[in-house]
Amino acid sequence: MGGTFDPIHHGHLVAASEAQAWFDLDEVVFVPTGQPWQKAAREVTSAEHRYLMTVIATASNPRFQVSRVDVDRDGPTYTIDTLRELSASLPDADLYFITGADALTEIFTWRDAADLFDLAHFVGCTRPGYEMNAASLEGIPADRVTILEIPALAISSTDCRQRTSAGQPVWYLVPDGVVQYISKHHLYGTQE
Ligand code: ATP
Ligand code: MG
Q1: Using one digit for the tens of pLDDT, what is the confidence trace for 36-61?
Q2: How many domains does the chain have?
Q3: What is the pLDDT of residues 92-146, one digit of tens each?
Q4: If you take atom 14 of ligand 1, which residue's CA is the nearest one?
Q5: Using an 8 Å Cβ cutoff, are 29 and 1 in contact?
Q6: Would you say the ipTM is above 0.95?
Q7: Spacing, Cα 2 to ligand 1 middle (Å)
């Protein structure tokens, strides 16, 4: 599951857990982006902070892992590079790439989009506020994509950042350890 995870929240964790259970996956690897190229317009928190929040949020689940492949690769993060690197290091694995509806409908804007489906099966998780319809999936080989209905959690990292900078709580939107990490490192303009 790729993401900026700025910060990781319960929407990400529920989507990962549902995909793990549905496909009986051995593990879900969370891959925080290095420099997300779609988000060049805004200041993204340092990769190290986002990586550590992802580790904290996933630590208690034995099936959840976090990979540094994108954090450690220089330059903007492209999913095609992520998948090539993961499939080289796990040659026997069947890879599933877990995304939300918003990300999946943009997939054809991603670099080397046509090659993505050779490397992984794509899982599009429903997300409140985003529609996924036949038109948005057009062009994706039908046997390489599954739409997965997720219990709706209208949580976004953008909202978590805005709430924090406005002094509003993010308790229960993100894991407790992430609330504490945000406060300890004064992320998102935390008010003291
Ligand atoms: P931002 O608001 O900064 O874009 P975000 O909440 O969308 O943050 P990302 O790190 O951009 O989080 O998302 C990583 C992946 O998780 C994407 O594929 C996204 O679609 C999916 N995702 C994020 N939130 C949810 C949610 N509440 N339900 C289902 N999928 C989600
Ligand atoms: Mg997003």
Answers
A1: 777 777 889 999 999 999 999 999 99
A2: 1
A3: 999 999 999 889 888 878 888 889 999 999 999 999 999 887 777 877 888 999 9
A4: 3
A5: yes
A6: yes
A7: 9
What pLDDT, on the 0 to 100 scale, is given for residue 190?
A: 80
pTM: 0.95
Distance (Å) of CA 187 to CA 35, 40, 153, 162 = 18, 19, 23, 11
Query: Nearest C-alpha to atom 24 of ligand 1 is from which residue?
Result: 11
d(CA 58, CA 76): 25
- Domain assignment present for 53: yes
Q: Is 187 inside a domain boundary?
A: no
CATH value at residue 113: 3.40.50.620
Does residue 11 lie within any of the structural domains?
Answer: yes
For 12-72, give the DSSP string. HHHHHHHHHHHHT-S-EEEEE-SEEGGGTTSPPPPHHHHHHHHHHHHTT-TTEEE--HHHH
36: containing domain? 2-156
